[in-house]
C-alpha cells in the first residue's frame, strides 16, 4: 500500500514536468524557424550600434578639439603669437613654451588621442602638443610632413579656404614625434582665428589616425573583412578603409547611397564590390558634415547563421536532456516531500488517503502546525514576561550592584530607562462594599490596579511597565524621551485629574494613593527612584481620600541649599577647554555642595554619578575630536563600590578629570607646533606665486589672516610682505648669477607682479639695478 501511494505521487509529478517540457519545445519552434532573420538582424543591429557609437566618438573628438581651440584663444601667449607679423624675436620663446604646454595639457585632459598642432599664416611659428619652433618650414622638412607635398602646398592646404571647420581626405602623414612610421590620417582643420568668419590667420589641425577611426566604427573581429568609407555630404570620398576598399569604388558607393535615399531606407542597403556581395550600413553626422558607410560581407551572415543554428540545436538537445533529468529528479524529491507531508496529514487529520486529495492533507497539516506554533509562541512570550517581571522587581527592590546584574537588566530593557519615573500605588475598599459584592464572582469584580494601569498608559506615550506586588498595591514605571521637558509635577497634576474618572470603573468607595518619584536616567537610578516613590507614598498616604504625591527633595537642615545643577555644565566646558584650575575649583564647589545638600548616602551617590557622567561625556567628545591620540593615558573612571566612601570616589573622579585636562593641553600644543610648520612651509613653497597673500595662506590652511600676520612676525621678526620679498630677492640673485635668462623671465619665476616692483625692491636692497649687480658680481666671481 505504501509503495503504491509513492508510485502514484511520483507519476503525477512526472506528468506535470513533461507537460512543461512540451510547452517549452512548442515555444522554441518559431524561434528555430526564424533563426536566419534573427541572426541577420542581430548582426546588423550590432554593427549599426557600433557605427552610431563610432560617429559619436568622432563628434566628441572634434568637439574637444574645438573646445581646445576656444581655450587657447584665451591665452595671452596665443594672442601675442596671433598678432605677430613676420619672424618672432627671442622674447616670444616663452610664449612658444607656454602655448605648447597648454596644448599638451589640454590634449591630455580632454582625452584627445590625435596628433595636434597650431600654425599661423602671418608668421612661421609652429606649436604642437610635442614640440614648438619659430620655423614652420624647418619643422615640416625635418619632423612633420605630408609625403609628396611641399611646405608651400601644405600652407595653401591650411589657409586656402575661410571655412570655420574642414575635414580633409585621408593622406599619408609623417610625424616623427607621433609615430616611427608614416601613417594614414584624416586631418581636421579648425579655424581658431579671432575673426574666423572673415579670415583664416591661425588653424588648429588634428590628424586622426585612420586605424583609430576604423576601430571606432568596427569591432575588432570586423576589421579583417569589413569595409569602411567616409564621404562628405556632397559625395567626395574622405576615407576608404578595408582589405578591398579603394578610392576607385567611390562612384559605385555614391550610386548605392543615392538609391538608398530614394527608396526611403537611407541606413541599410546592398552593394557589389570586386564580385562580392555586401550589405551596407550608413549613417551621417550633420555636425561634422560627413557620411559613414560600413560594408558587411554577406558571407558573415551565413557564418553567424550556421553558428547560431548549431548553437540552437546544441542547446535544444542539451536542454531537453537536462529538463528530462531535472523532471525525474524534482519528481522524486517532490514525491518524497509530499509523502512525508501526506503521512503527517493522515496522522493529524485521521482522514483516509486517496490519490486526489493530497493537497487537502497538506492544508490540514499546515493549519495544525500553525496552531501548535501559536501555542508555543504564547508560552515563550509568557516566559519572557515572567523573566522581565522578575528582573524588574529585583531592579526596583534590590537595585543594581554588580556588572552581571547590569548586563541582565540591559538584555531585558535595553535603553528604555534613558528617562523614567516610578509611580507606586495603594488602594483600599470599605468592608461593607466588599460584603455587598460577595455575590459577584471575583473574576468579574473591577480591579483598581488594572484600571489604573490603563490610565497611566494614556498619560505616557512611550510605554509603561507594571508590577502587581499585592492585591492592593502596584508599582508602575513610566518612560519618556530624553528631550521631553515636562516635569513630574505636571504628570502628577494630570494623574490627579484622571483619578476622578476611575469612579465609573472601580468601586466608588475605593481610596487610591499614588507616590511619584523624580525623573531618573539609567538603570542604576531605578532603585533610588523606587525609594523616592515609596517615600512620597508613605509620607502622604491617608485612609480618608485619594491623592497623588510627588517626591520633593530637601536640603540638609532647615532651609538648606539645593544642589547647583549648573555645575555639570561648567565642568563639561572646562574639561573640553583643558582648564585645569577651573576644573579643580568646580570639583571643590561640587564637593562642598554635596556635603551641604545631600543628607543620605543615596543622595550623595546621585550627585557623584551626575558628575561622573559629565566627565564620561567630555571624554567621549575628546575621543571624537581631531588630533586626539589613542595612546593618551587617562585614568579610568572610578566604578561604584559599596566598600568605598562616596567622597573618596569623588576624589578619584577629580584626578581623572585633571588627567583629561592635561591631555587636552598637550594636544593643543602639538597642533600649534604643526600649524606653525605648515605656515612657513607653505610660504617657502609658494612665494613664486605673485598672488600670494595672507588671505590666500589663511584660506588654504583654514586660519585667520590676523594669526598669519602675527605668527610670521613672531617667527622671523619681519612683516609677512617683507619676508616674502626677501625670499623672492634671494631666488632672483641666484638666477642672475647662475643663468642667462632675461630679467623679465626671472621676475616672473620669483613671483614679482611687475617689472617696477622687481626693480624697486632690488634697488632698495642693493642700490643698483639687477643688470648692474649681475655684471659686477660675475666679474668678482
From TrEMBL:
The chain crosses the membrane at residues 14-33, 307-330. The keyword Phosphoprotein does not apply. The keyword Transcription applies. Pfam families: HTH_18 (PF12833). InterPro entries: Homeodomain-like_sf, HTH_AraC. Keywords: DNA-binding, Membrane, Transcription, Transcription regulation, Transmembrane, Transmembrane helix. It comes from the Bacteria. SUPFAM superfamilies: Homeodomain-like (SSF46689). This is HTH araC/xylS-type domain-containing protein. It comes from Saccharibacillus endophyticus.
